[in-house]
Amino acid sequence: xxxxxxxxAMAQQLPELPDAxxxxxxxxxxxxxxxxxxxxxxxxxxxxFEETVHLGAHPKTAANWIxxxxxxxxxxxxxxxxxxxxxxxxxxxxxNLIQNNxxxxxxxxxxxxxxFETGDDPETIVQKRGLKQxxxxxxxxxxxxxxxxxNPLQVQQYREGKTKVIGFLVGQIMKxxxxxxxxxxxxxxxxxxxxx
Length: 196
Prior knowledge:
The protein is mostly helical. It has 12 helices and no strands.
């Protein structure tokens, strides 16, 4: 007969089971049950996610990038997670660039596409392609002022209460900066100019 203490010791040596891991991802990391289930569907997927988060990526952001962007591309290419040219290290660093406001989410998708094709690290791609986000308020103010001067009709409409036109103006600013302007700075400066 095997004693309970021996059974308990053996149980502690077992790896964390998928259901327990999914529960931990939900309770400790705040993931939805669906995301936790997808991320624990295979051992390799769970390891990929945990390594990405270990590098400082916010768990929900990491889950989104892995389940939507990475898995979407892998599925289209007929590849498994362990065949991905985007390592957890590179995924974590890409997410950190977004979290640190060095690139926008839109630019991050461009960077991810290159990462997926080449396996290059995100910082190198951002630097080589000049994709770093513009957070210099002086530079953004100049673009905002030009867009407002070029679009007096939309400015007038906004001041008459048609606030949805702000989306058009933001779009023009982002287009003029090739998507590199910090969206939060653009919105703050634009609101300030339009209310003045």
